[in-house]
Amino acid sequence: MRFALILAVLAGPALGEELKIGHLSLTEDPRDVQDWGYARLSAPPPVITADAARMAVTDLVFTTDAVGLTVTLDAQAVAAGDVVATAQAMVAAGETLLVLDLPSAEVAAVAEALAGQPILMVNATAPDQSLRSACYANMVHSGPSLRQETDAFAQYLRAMNWDDILILQGDYPSDADLADAFSASAERLRLTVVDRKPFTLAADPQNREGNNIKLLTADLDYDLVFVADTRGEFARYLSYAMLLPRPVIGSVGLTSKAWHWAYERDGATQVSSRFDKLTGRKMQPADWAVWIGVKSLIIAAIKSPGADPVALREFLMSNKLKLDGSKGVTLNYRAWDGQLRQPVILGTSDAVIAVAPIEGFSHQTNTLDTLGTDEAEFVCN
Amino acid sequence: MRIIPAAALAAFLAMIAGGPATAKDTGLIFVSLERGNQVVVLNPDLSVNSRIDTSRRPRDMHFNKDRSLLYVACGDDDVIDVIDVATLAVVDSIPTGPSPEIFAFSPDESQIFVSNEEDSTVEIIDVSSKTVVERVATGAEPEGVINSVDGKYIFATSEVADMVHVIDREKAAVIKNIIVGTRPRRFVVTPDGADLWVSDELSSEVHVIDIASLEIKSVQSFLPPGFRPEDVTPVGMAITKDGSKVLITLGRANHLAIVDAKTFEVLQYVLVGSRAWDVDLTADEKTAFVANGLSDDITVIDMATMSAVQSLAVGRTPHSIRVDD
Q1: Best interface-test mutation with A: which of B162, B164, B180, B277 has the largest number of A CBs within 10 A?
Q2: ipTM of this predicted complex?
Q3: Which residues of chain B does A323 touch, with a Cβ-Cβ cutoff of 8 Å?
Q4: How far is B182 from chain A (nearest CA, A)?
Q5: What is the pTM of this model?
Q6: Tens digits of per-residue pLDDT, A38-49?
Q7: Element (H, E) at B184
Q8: B261-305: per-residue pLDDT in tens?
Q9: How far is CA B184 from the centre of its chain?
Q10: Between chains, do A63 and B139 touch, taking CB under 8 Å as contact?
Q11: How far away is chain B from the Cα of A61, in angstroms, using its nearest Cα?
Q12: Which terminus in chain A has less CB density within 10 A, N or C?
């Protein structure tokens, strides 16, 4: 036990130390799949990521026991309006490490309310670029950013030489954000966006160009369609209904996410199986992001030379962190935006097609930095 | 089987082929195909002898001492299949816990120690009665299993807990946990019984543990020219009978490191296939075979020149290689 004892002395956790982690989510998350059109959809069960947080704690119990670290997890699900007050109460109760499974607006509200506090927040599931460029001093991001996801698409399309893309975009702000991110990714790899067209869900005959799939996809040629429809209600009916026989990617068809339950390399099967056994449902990207977020905090508490949240954040963003996310490579957080470097999985509803970074895309320091906003182009707002 | 054009290569293969095949020391090369549900059997000249259908997801393999039987852990059917080396057919199956991956025999061959990566246990199985006699809880995703030369300890890695569990065989209990690098995978024990080598896949290291004191005595890392540390993911290892050299597959770095076991000096980095995993040596130690998990092939290495002489496609996701000689 020499090594363990050295860790206990040099690193933060002395015998009997307690790591208090809070997990905050919404009772009704608008991002869960909803049946907008009474279409009798087989909607997947709600993604209760508190389960993933618990699994991370259980996974590491042998290790935390060995160094005498006690980890407690307090998972709270509240209404959107109560998020800030709950987060403040959790911090007041000594939970200095908060893992957030919240939409972008709620993450921003919590971050503003807790700015300057000596805590560490992990934004697990809001992919918005704006949360990265806000440069919150006490936050890191464990789930991939939109740009990491869309860069993964762009690498794959470039590798396949599918370089003419039609973008269809819905009218939600998050649809525009997704389409913007994909456009930027396409530009970086010199893919051609032949057109970017808005669609609407309404059947207004005066707007046939905007709601008729055949008209939307006519009059030009392209290798495939990227659909930005974060609700999914339009995208669901797009494949096999377009004027040209072309594949659809983005919100349906081929998707680009942190995790896929069918991924079976790199020990991923074991993680998914443990999750399955624990919850009776398949592990979703948000589950992985929460799992790795909690795991990051515990590993940092064990291995970082300082135990306070500021020291933990510094350790997470250093090359000293060698985090195992069961995606084949060691992970750590980027120093410039607090974003977890990670492979991104391109998959269909039931199969993994590719994992980005796609072979052949190189970077001067870390291949994982071919995905997402790189240091030179990153600006804090 | 592809035609080998080079005369030198043919001569080399004739050399490793040895004399005519007999029931013993057949020189047959067994490769388990994790996604092929087969063990492919190669002749000494590397032509395909046969493909043995096994239970699903065959992984680690070990011969019994007289090499009449080859045991194959099959992860998706929760069994260890038993292959008769003379007839090349599955003749028996030993039930295990969920998802057996790596296993070892006790020195007297009466017991099998197997890691069950999906329920986080190491099981001790009585070979003759085919029953589980003990179940030892480990950290999540146990993988490498090996026993000390004296049979006193069973060592097991936990890939998630980043530790080596030291299990007292008689008590069937963990007596010590040794924290090593990130995602520890496999072991070798030096032939003198003194040292335990552990490969740490994601921290790009190998830990060497002194078995007498159960303390870490050395941490080594390996970096083939032109690679970054994060590309180096060590997994499989083999050691020569005299304990002088350790062969370590470097995973994503697509190289095999041949290392001086005493000085840790790298004698040679050998370019192999994609995601090099298991490695095994022939009995005369003139040849090494590496299973490449992502390129679905094996690499044949001439140990005299420490260079790759051939690659051979074998099937989906080769996991382990064993040579009967």
Answers
A1: B162
A2: 0.80
A3: 182
A4: 7
A5: 0.87
A6: 666 777 778 899
A7: strand B184-189
A8: 999 999 999 999 999 999 999 999 999 999 998 899 999 999 999
A9: 14
A10: yes
A11: 8
A12: C
